[in-house]
């Protein structure tokens, strides 16, 4: 009788363990946070690739009014996910996912040519530590918002994107409140969760060496792609490959 009970318990335990392992390995929700001077529509190609591979992708349209507002917008999207999620951030979006990534829905973080701050750091201090090749950022007349000079957008943001597409990105860019770039993050989510990083080796908006340094500091699995700052648009398949790999590994 005791043997039968033990055997039944062992089978039940093994079945539960297998079910749990299978469940934890399945991360199908991808939440993307775009950077400054862009919007979520520029992620369409990468999104379509990921969806064809069976992922559920949502792109956060954060207001770029403050870091707190952008984190709140991201958390609202995370609350809609059915199950665990992988959080992806491009450029300034890296600041957002570093803070929002502490949300319990998040299993892992992917930084795409992004800022990857430690506690107390902001965009200004990070960019100043290893300046980019070019700086085409300008102020609006009211000195409250920043934008990327449309005449320099192709060269400095999306050099490897077709000129017509880059022109559309320039004209549809979202202006960012100046305070966004001075806001500091709290405890970074990458300290407690797995992270991956894509270094855009031809990036003129964020120094590629800074991207490498931040990834190394965070212990992120780094992949280098020969591309501009808009690597997600010019190399959507390669970016999708990294995101898919991260989704599979984060769930283990």
TrEMBL record:
Signal peptide extent: 1-21
Superkingdom per UniProt: Bacteria
The AB hydrolase-1 domain, residue ranges: 30-242
Gene3D superfamilies given in the database record: alpha/beta hydrolase
Biological source species: Rhizobium grahamii CCGE 502
Keywords associated with the record: Signal
InterPro entries reported for this sequence: AB_hydrolase_1, AB_hydrolase_fold, Sec-Metab_Biosynth_Hydrolase
PANTHER family: AB HYDROLASE-1 DOMAIN-CONTAINING PROTEIN-RELATED, ESTERASE_LIPASE_THIOESTERASE DOMAIN-CONTAINING PROTEIN
Name this protein carries in UniProt: AB hydrolase-1 domain-containing protein
């Amino acid at each position: 009788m005791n043997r039968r009970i033990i055997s039944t318990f062992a089978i039940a335990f093994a079945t539960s363990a297998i079910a749990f392992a299978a469940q934890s390995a399945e991360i199908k929700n991808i939440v993307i946070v775009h950077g400054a001077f862009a919007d979520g529509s520029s992620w369409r190609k990468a999104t379509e690739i990921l969806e064809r591979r069976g992922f559920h992708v949502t792109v956060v349209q954060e207001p770029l009014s403050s870091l707190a507002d952008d984190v709140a917008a991201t958390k609202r999207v995370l609350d809609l996910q059915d199950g665990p999620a992988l959080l992806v951030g491009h450029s300034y979006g890296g600041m957002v996912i570093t803070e929002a990534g502490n949300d319990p829905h998040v299993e892992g973080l992917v930084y795409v040519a992004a800022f990857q701050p430690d506690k107390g750091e902001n965009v200004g201090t990070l960019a100043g530590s290893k300046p980019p090749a070019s700086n085409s950022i300008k102020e609006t007349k009211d000195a409250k918002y920043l934008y990327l000079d449309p005449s320099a957008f192709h060269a400095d943001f999306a050099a490897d994107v077709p000129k017509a597409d880059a022109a559309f990105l320039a004209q549809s860019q979202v202006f960012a409140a100046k305070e966004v770039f001075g806001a500091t993050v709290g405890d970074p989510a990458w300290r407690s969760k797995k992270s991956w990083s894509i270094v855009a080796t031809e990036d003129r908006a964020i120094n590629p060496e800074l991207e490498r340094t931040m990834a190394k500091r965070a212990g992120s699995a780094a992949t280098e792609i020969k591309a501009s700052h808009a690597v997600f648009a010019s190399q959507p398949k390669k970016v999708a490959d990294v995101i898919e790999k991260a989704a599979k590994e984060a769930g283990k």
